[in-house]
Every structure is written in structure tokens, then in C-alpha cells.
Amino acid sequence: MSKNFDVVVIGGGPGGYIAAIRAAQLGFSTACIDEWKNAKNGPAPGGTCTNVGCIPSKALLQSSEFYEHAGHGFAEHGIDVKGLGLDVARMLARKDNVVKQNNDGILYLFKKNKVSFFHGRGSFVKGDASGYEIKVSGNAEETLVAKHVIVATGSNPRALPGVAFDEKLVLSNTGALAIDAVPKKLGVIGAGVIGLEMGSVWRRLGAEVTVLEALPAFLGAVDEQIAKEAFKYFTKQGLSINLGVKIGAITPGKKDVTVEYTDDKGNAQKVVFDKLIVSIGRVPNTIGLNAEGVGLKLDERGFIAVDADCKTSLPNVWAVGDVVRGPMLAHKAEEEGVAVAERIAGQHGHVNFNTIPWVIYTSPEIAWVGKTEQQLKAEGVAYKAGTFPFMANGRARALGDTSGMVKFLADAKTDEILGVHIVGPMASELISEAVVAMEFRASAEDIARICHAHPSLSEATKEAALAVDKRSLNF
């Protein structure tokens, strides 16, 4: 016997669970289907982000940073640590507990908002504008019928051709978060967000980390000046970052992995790693959705085709998050989930792609919003730039972390903020001020005129805004 709902969401990641909650808040009878399982085969909603992405990686980044501080940073504060030890199993257990807290939190939110949760894989059976039949395949099979369907099935890690993930020697983000002992030599293919974050974790814990990146430029999507600063810090810390390489044969053995590649000078190289993390991007997850069975259109790259409002080719079927165009970011998925629920309710949900912040949680952190300097040059936009180093910030000195800078880019005529780029301590938190400012189309002068607490890292933001007009006060 089928169960009827106004809205059924397929996928319980950031886009899916948020869409379900917002739809329920708007008065719709709502169900969410998600198949993630915990170690006990119980439900683990939250998607890649909560289970093998954003949340566990930040837990390990924090733990590994504490370890590095204890081993190398505390001494200058007059704190001597003797007999420093490392228990990787306990560190992973804490990470798993953080994940579980988030899983449980989502289940609580479903209950609080009266969202019906179904543990299993959701797939289309049939349907049209009058309603869609969705099958839930799991421990107990269910049939749901919905007026509206929101697809939020996320993405999967992209594997190298002919080199499957075994999560023991060749690792995706999933395996990289579950290494049970510090490898002596760790290889990372791909110098993107995941590669740099995971490489940083295991380098801090004692691994010799080599990063192999095919592109000739480091962090090409980041403002070039900021990327150069970050590269300097990462290599000084001990990450060996090789750009412009061409990956050849990858041969897993019994206990290690051999990688052959050509370096940027054309020289053939061969290196043996204890573990290899492959982080070369992600692909949309439509496996088992039966998109073809109901005529749900995919684009040439395998994403679900949607318009600007996240409407698919089928009436009353919507899609959000990693499975559609746009940046694969959890917070982008959340905003789309809210916007779609509101559109179903006849409201005007809105997502501004120009003010979506990006963050890389390395140390120093990298965060940005808006246009980079190279983009403005390519587009022929006249702009002014202002920078301020954390070296000249009192709070950063007190923290003992003066790496990096804040950079403002503003329109040369109107002074409207076009982009803000940060490399340095707590960049992930500092970027929010820039996002708010850009949403309200503020000028650099607006930020320069706002009183910022002293001493605080946020003063570097004010100073960079002042620097756009060449009147920085502390540098």
C-alpha cells in the first residue's frame, strides 16, 4: 500500500534534508529518503558531507592541528610537552562520534519538523504531473506517492581510469578519513580542496606527503596572489607539491602503490607510496534513480538538467546540490533546497551564485567570495585592490599565527566590492562579513567605515578595505 505525500525528497544530504525541513515548515506533508548506513546498518542521514566529507574531515583537521601545536607550537608559549603520543584509533573514534552526533541531529530535526524518514534507496517507478510513484528499497520496501519530488542524490568521487578505489591502498575521501595508522609515504593525486585538506591532516601526523597535480597552476580557481601565498606556506610546512605532472601507470601491490608520472620538465618519475589518495573531482550520483525510466533528462556530463529555478525536464520534479550544475558545495545545496521548497509553495526562493563563499580548511585557511583578480582582468573590468597582512594584526600576533592576508577588489568607479580573498587564520569565519557586504552591494568604503572590535582578526578585513583607497592605518 502506497503512502502519499505532498513532497518527497530523494537524498538526505545537506540539500535534501534541508529541503525536506523547509517544505515541512511551509505546511507540506513531506518525506525524505536516504540510504546511508552507519557501522550498525542504522540510518546515517547527512550524505557525503556528514559521513565522509565536510564534517569528519574538519574533525581530523582539528585533531591533527592540536597534535602539531603540541609538538611544535606550544613551546614558544612557555608550554613544554613531554612524552607526546599519538593514538590514531582514538582520533578516528572521536571523528566517528562527531559524525554520529550530526546524523542523530538530523534525525531529531526530522522528528521535530514532522518529516517522515525512510531508510533506503529511492527510485522513480512512474508518474506525471498528477503524481510520482517512488520505490524505497531497503530493509523494508515502501512505495511512496508524491505531488512534488526533489532529487538531492549528491555526487561520488571520480576514479582514475582503470584504477578502482579499494579504500585500502587506493583511497577516495572515504578511505582517506579512515587510515588506521600514519603512513610513512602518502601520495595524493589532485591538489584541490580534498587533496590539500587530507594531505595536511596526515602530514601533521607524521607522513611524508607528495601531491601530484596535472594543472600547471596551483589552485587555479583561487585569486593568483592568494594562491601563491598559500603555496609558499604549504611547501614550507613540508607538503611536496608537484605541478604540471602527467600521471602514467598506477600499480597497487600487496602493501603499497607504485605511481609512474612525467614531471613538468618531461622527466619520467616512479615513486612507491604506502597509501594513495585520489582526489580528482566528483561525478553526479544518479545510480539507481531510474531517471531514464521516467524520462528525467541528464545533461552531457551526467548531471540532472535543470533550469535557473532547479526545475527538471519533468513537471513537479526538482533537483538540487551536487547532482546539478554549479559548485559542489554543501552550503550551495542547502540554499537550493530552501529555494525549491519555497518555490513549490509559490514563493520566490533565490540563490545568488555570485555570493557563494568558498573555503579550504588547511592551515592557513583559504576563503573567498566573488571575482578573482585574474577574472576581472580577463573580463576587462576596471578595479582597485587593497591588501592587508595578518603580520600587522595584533590579534594574529597574540594567536601566534600571522600568516597570510586579506585582499579586497572593488569597482574602480563605484567602489562596489567585487571580490574578497583571504588566506590566514580563521578565514572561513572572516569571509562571512564579505558575503553579507556583497549581498547588500556594499562598497569597500562601507566596510572601511564600520567599527571593528579591537583586537580582532576582523580588523584585517577593515584595513584591507581601507587599503583599496590607499589609506590603511596599521600597515
Description:
The longest helix is centred in the N-terminal third of the chain and has 25 residues, at 88-112. The mean pLDDT is 97. Strand 12 (257-262) and strand 13 (268-273) form a beta hairpin. The protein has three domains: 3-157 and 283-351, FAD/NAD(P)-binding domain, CATH 3.50.50.60; 170-280, FAD/NAD(P)-binding domain (3-Layer(bba) Sandwich); 355-468, FAD/NAD-linked reductase, C-terminal dimerisation domain (Enolase-like, domain 1), CATH 3.30.390.30. 45% of the residues are buried. It has helices at 14-25, 47-52, 54-73, 88-112, 173-176, 193-204, 224-237, 291-294, 330-344, 373-379, 394-399, 427-439, 444-449, 459-468; strands spanning 3-10, 30-34, 116-128, 131-138, 142-151, 155-157, 170-171, 185-189, 208-212, 240-242, 246-252, 257-262, 268-273, 275-278, 282-284, 317-319, 358-360, 365-370, 383-389, 405-411, 417-424. The protein contains 14 helices and 21 strands. The protein is 32% helix and 26% strand. The strands form five sheets. Strands 1-2-3-4-5 form a five-stranded mixed barrel. The protein has a five-stranded parallel beta sheet with strand order 7-14-8-9-10. A five-stranded antiparallel beta sheet has the order 17-18-21-20-19, sandwiched between helices. It starts with a strand and ends in a 7-residue tail after the last helix. The protein has 475 residues and is α/β, with parallel strands linked by helices. Its cofactor is FAD. Keywords: Cytoplasm, FAD, Flavoprotein, NAD, Oxidoreductase, Redox-active center.
In short:
With 475 residues, this protein is an alpha/beta fold. The protein has helices at 14-25, 47-52, 54-73, 88-112, 173-176, 193-204, 224-237, 291-294, 330-344, 373-379, 394-399, 427-439, 444-449, 459-468, and strands at 3-10, 30-34, 116-128, 131-138, 142-151, 155-157, 170-171, 185-189, 208-212, 240-242, 246-252, 257-262, 268-273, 275-278, 282-284, 317-319, 358-360, 365-370, 383-389, 405-411, 417-424. The strands form 5 sheets. Strands 1-2-3-4-5 form a 5-stranded mixed beta barrel. A 5-stranded parallel beta sheet has the order 7-14-8-9-10.
